[in-house]
Write a structure and sequence with these properties.
Distance between the termini: 35 Å
Strand content: under 5%
Number of domains: 2
Structural class: mainly alpha
Pfam family, one: DUF3159
Number of helices: 9
Number of strands: 0
Keywords: Membrane, Transmembrane, Transmembrane helix
Transmembrane segments: 12-30, 36-53, 60-78, 84-105, 133-151, 163-187
Largest sheet: none
Radius of gyration: 19 Å
Helix content: over 70%
Order of helices and strands: HHHHHHHHH
Protein name: DUF3159 domain-containing protein
Length: 199
């Protein structure tokens, strides 16, 4: 049975789904709104065609294309580049709330997602050390999503389109990478502690 990561097309699928957004951010800084919208949509189509040609799962690329299509539609209708970032802001806000609530109900999403990706089941919740590690990791992810909403939301309200695009890129993979590294470190540390009979 394919894991969640397999269904997402692996790491390359996750990266591919975000390429159109990166193209829009750069194109909007260099050019104007309409060329940026066109460039982002074209990038989404090219990524989808490329994955089909390589016989790779297209679902991530199609999801990314639909997402960039929605963002492009909003930007086009509002006539403002900042409209392109509105779906991402709403998504980050939703994720911040979802991750925080998951901690409060003692089902931290970092653990649910981690074991969903690896196909390991949800027995980890019976291990206090793992539950604590995933709780800390989930709180960090909550902070990541919340910081995006706060900072990018302020830039959105101030209509600072260029800095909003820069913030979108800077707070994308870099922050995600740091949170992922912490999650991996915390989980591996908890696994080692669980295996130690002296603990």
């Amino acid at each position: 049975m394919p894991t969640l990561l397999d269904q997402m097309g692996g790491v390359s699928g996750i990266v591919a789904s975000s390429i159109p957004v990166g193209v829009f951010v750069v194109a909007n800084i260099v050019f104007e709104l309409q060329p940026a919208i066109i460039a982002a949509v074209v990038a989404g189509v090219l990524v989808t065609v490329w994955r089909i040609a390589r016989k790779q799962p297209v679902q991530p690329a199609v999801s990314g294309l639909l997402g960039v299509g929605l963002a492009a539609f909003i930007a086009s209708r509002t006539g403002e580049a900042r409209g392109f970032y509105l779906p991402g802001l709403i998504t980050s806000g939703f994720l911040a709330v979802a991750f925080l609530v998951s901690v409060l109900v003692r089902r931290p999403l970092a653990g649910v997602i981690w074991h969903g990706i690896n196909g390991d089941g949800q027995g980890w919740r019976n291990n206090p050390l793992l539950l604590r590690a995933y709780t800390y990791a989930t709180l960090l992810w909550t902070l990541v999503f919340a910081s995006r909403v706060v900072l990018q939301g302020l830039l959105y309200d101030a209509n600072e389109e260029t800095w909003l695009g820069v913030a979108r890129l800077a707070m994308g993979y870099p922050l995600t990478g740091l949170a992922l590294l912490f999650t991996i470190w915390a989980v591996r540390r908890a696994h080692r502690a669980s295996a130690d009979p002296a603990v």
